[in-house]
Design goal:
- With 369 residues, the chain is α/β, with parallel strands linked by helices.
- It has a single domain, classed as TIM Barrel.
- The strands form 2 sheets. The chain has an 8-stranded parallel β-barrel with strand order 4-5-6-7-8-9-10-11, surrounded by 6 helices. The protein has a 3-stranded antiparallel beta sheet with strand order 1-2-3, with no helix packed on it.
- Helix 3 packs across helix 4, helix 9 packs across helix 10 and helix 9 runs antiparallel to helix 12.
- The longest helix has 18 residues.
- It is globular and about 50 Å long.
Length: 369
């Protein structure tokens, strides 16, 4: 797998970070435009999936309550983080409730991203993105969040049973009503995303400005189709699980088995499957670069992602303040060209068809290189 070429991010501002985030050294947060919109988001955002612990699956991620959530949000805002991500399906809505209460009067200082699609009840119309389901879901999310609008509203997954015209028409009505500022997709395939954009263009409706995607050093499938599409159509990537479903935290390695306390014990089967030898090869390279830079393994893995085309923000999850502060140390420095190439090589994999075939004709198929 070849590394995508690095594109400049010309539109950004920098804001002071809290001085204790990186061994007492003052650093800065970068802001990037979200896709083809005029909205600027911090390159690091906070994922509230750890809030609530509403069932066994989400308890493995975390069970943050309102008091701890307030502290984590304060740390994020001190660092310049302005985007907070949740979903109605996280802990059966409990994540949204805690995020709304924790933000409180700081709501206007934050961007809120939420999502809908997954079942919220036993009925046949309690799932998916049909018009009635989406209307009920959005109103419920607004109530739980304690706000009258969300900044970014994602379709959490593609609903093949609902016409795309119905989905896009419903979303444009939310935007016209002022209840949603920007619309976005999540976990779409290339044709799902492109058809959604085309239909929005046909009727002059708001386009998806972002795509929330799984992307990491041990999960580079995003690069083959969705990244070139995002580049061509100006769809920004909001990256979830940027540490490879918890595998690139620095706690796992060739001679370091999964710790006794790890969400992988309960959630590994629900996420991407990764062969051990491939994982260890990538971690070996990460450990070398971490030693060279004086950074941690997760900081290096996250910084690598920030150099990739289309990436607008990395969604960080954290069980506690220590984890959060460590990951916030990802900004204000960059890996060298040689270090990026080393990580690219260690994480390379065979291109799927038709991309291995198209790479034989790079002059007519200029995929990111």
């Amino acid at each position: 797998m070849h590394a995508p070429r690095r594109l400049p991010h010309a539109h950004f501002n920098r804001a002071p970070l809290h001085p204790d985030l990186q061994t007492g050294i003052l650093s800065t947060m970068e802001y990037r435009l979200l896709g083809g919109s005029g909205l600027k988001v911090s390159v690091l955002s906070f994922g509230a999936a750890t809030f609530g612990g509403g069932n066994e699956f989400f308890k493995a991620w975390g069970s943050t309550d309102v008091a701890e959530a307030k502290r984590l949000i304060d740390v994020c805002m001190d660092a310049g983080v302005n985007l907070f991500d949740t979903a109605d399906g996280y802990s059966d809505g409990r994540s949204e409730e805690i995020l709304g209460k924790a933000l409180g009067k700081k709501r206007d200082q934050a961007l809120i991203s939420t999502k809908t699609y997954f079942p919220l009840g036993p009925g046949p119309n309690d799932r998916g993105t049909s018009r009635g389901r989406m209307r009920r879901a959005l109103e419920a999310s607004l109530k739980r969040l304690g706000t009258d609008y969300v900044d970014i509203y994602h379709m959490h997954c593609f609903d093949a049973l609902t016409p795309i015209e119905e989905v896009q028409d419903t979303l444009q009505s939310f935007v016209r009503e002022g209840k949603v500022r920007y619309t976005a997709a999540s976990n779409f395939s290339g044709w799902h995303l492109m058809k959604s954009l085309a239909i929005a263009d046909r009727y002059g409706w708001p386009r998806f400005v972002a795509h929330q995607v799984y992307y990491s050093l041990v999960g580079r499938d995003y690069e083959w189709e969705l990244m070139p599409l995002g580049m061509a159509e100006k769809v920004g990537a909001l990256v979830w699980s940027p540490l490879g479903w918890g595998r690139l935290t620095g706690k796992i390695g060739r001679n370091k088995p999964v710790p006794k306390v790890s969400r992988l014990h309960k959630t590994a089967d629900a996420g991407p499957q990764i062969e051990n030898e491939y994982l260890y090869k990538v971690i070996d390279a990460l450990e070398v670069v971490a030693a060279e830079t004086g950074k941690t393994v997760p900081q290096v893995a996250l910084n690598w992602l920030l150099q990739r085309p289309t990436v607008s923000s990395l969604i960080l999850g954290a069980r506690n303040e220590q984890q959060l502060k460590q990951n916030l140390g990802t900004v204000d420095w960059n890996l060298s060209t040689e270090q990026i190439a080393r990580l690219d090589q260690a994480s390379a994999s065979q291109a799927p068809y038709p991309y291995w075939h198209q790479r034989n004709f790079p002059e007519r198929n200029p995929l990111p290189v």
